């Protein structure tokens, strides 16, 4: 009897068959279907495309440097060639003769491998600061056979400046790294990257690189930014020195001031003569002064804007010669 009892107890309760309805059976989770051959091929192709895209995003900058004279720096490590630089001829820049001569001399020394200073062009808006940098590069580069490259770095990418320096250090070319409208506001601490490159880092600025910057501010920093540092520092004087010392690291300061009426009219006449715009001189002077009055200022930019208006009205194309 004991044996029969054990056998009876060892019998297993039969499980309900999968997919059979009724009997109170619960359905188990469905297993994920194995990917088909087409899906595996699609995934493989996507992985290959992603790898090729990643490789294409890192071009050989040493090769790119031979294909243009000017570039825009991207913080992901790319130097984007600029096929045609937007600039005016050096001879069209009026009223800034002294600054022009100083910057050209400094750039010529640098292009020849002689000592030269980083330059800060500061002052009134529209007086040709960035135009002078670009025109100077074109003039000097033509004299040295294309060995001087111009690289623009945007203000918001200043923190990547050390990476750019590392890239340029081993090149056989010489470089002007140019930042237009450079200034710092609020709690922006990226100016420290610029300070380290200008002077003070272990490696220092590469000998084949010079930095030119333009700004409306002489000290590159907003007044309230300096005042905030003064009010919260233990030693206010040291805090202000920390901020002002950034401008001090540019060895060459070139100040641009508002032009006189005669200088403004000379700019207008220079543009008109260069582009062949014919108008009676008395009428030209009257219209140019009226234009500057409506704009509330006189500058090289205002003179150029008036020239564009006059050329369009007279049907003259402003093609560069």
Helix content: 40-55%
Order of helices and strands: HHHEEHEHEHEHEHHEHHH
Radius of gyration: 33 Å
The mean pLDDT is: 80
* Global structural class: alpha/beta
Biggest sheet: strands, sense, closure?
7 strands, mixed
Strand tally is 7
Tell me the layout of helices and strands:
Elements: H1 2-10, H2 37-56, H3 61-64, E1 70-74, E2 78-81, H4 97-111, E3 119-123, H5 129-143, E4 148-152, H6 161-169, E5 174-179, H7 191-198, E6 209-215, H8 223-232, H9 236-248, E7 252-256, H10 261-275, H11 281-295, H12 300-314
Parallel strand pairs: 1-4, 3-6, 3-7, 4-5, 5-6
Antiparallel strand pairs: 1-2
Structure in words:
This protein has 321 residues and is of the alpha/beta class. It has twelve helices and seven strands. Strands 2-1-4-5-6-3-7 form a seven-stranded mixed beta sheet. Helix 6 links the parallel strand 4 and strand 5. The termini are far apart. The N terminus is likely disordered.
Short synopsis of the structure:
With 321 residues, this protein is an alpha/beta fold. The protein has twelve helices and seven strands. The protein is 46% helix and 12% strand.
Keywords:
7 strands, 321 residues, globular, disordered N terminus, alpha/beta
């Amino acid at each position: 009897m004991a044996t029969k009892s054990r056998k009876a107890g060892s019998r297993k309760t039969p499980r309900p068959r999968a997919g059979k309805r009724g009997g109170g059976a619960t359905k188990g989770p469905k297993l994920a279907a194995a990917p088909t051959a087409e899906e595996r091929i699609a995934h493989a192709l996507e992985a290959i495309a992603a790898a090729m895209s990643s490789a294409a995003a890192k071009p050989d900058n040493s090769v790119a440097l031979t294909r243009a004279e000017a570039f825009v720096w991207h913080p992901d490590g790319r130097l984007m060639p600029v096929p045609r630089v937007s600039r005016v001829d050096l001879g069209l820049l009026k009223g800034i003769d002294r600054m022009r001569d100083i910057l050209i001399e400094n750039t010529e020394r640098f292009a020849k491998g002689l000592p030269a200073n980083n330059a800060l062009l500061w002052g009134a808006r529209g007086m040709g600061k960035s135009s002078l940098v670009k025109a100077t590069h074109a003039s000097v580069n033509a004299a040295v056979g294309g060995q001087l490259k111009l690289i623009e770095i945007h203000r918001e990418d200043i923190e990547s400046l050390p990476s750019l320096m590392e890239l340029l250090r081993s090149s056989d070319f010489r470089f002007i790294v140019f930042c237009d409208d450079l200034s710092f506001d609020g709690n922006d601490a990226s100016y420290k990257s610029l300070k380290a490159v200008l002077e003070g880092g272990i490696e220092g600025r590469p000998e084949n690189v010079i930095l030119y910057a333009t700004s409306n501010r002489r000290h590159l920093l907003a007044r309230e930014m300096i005042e905030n540092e003064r009010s919260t520092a233990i030693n206010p004087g040291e805090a202000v020195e920390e901020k002002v010392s950034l401008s001090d690291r540019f060895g060459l300061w070139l100040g641009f001031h508002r032009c006189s009426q005669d200088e403004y009219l000379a700019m207008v006449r220079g543009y008109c003569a260069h582009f062949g715009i014919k108008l009676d001189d008395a009428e030209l002077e009257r219209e140019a002064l009226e234009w500057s009055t409506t704009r509330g200022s006189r500058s090289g930019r205002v003179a150029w804007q008036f020239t564009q208006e006059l050329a369009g009205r007279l049907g003259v194309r402003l093609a560069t010669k």
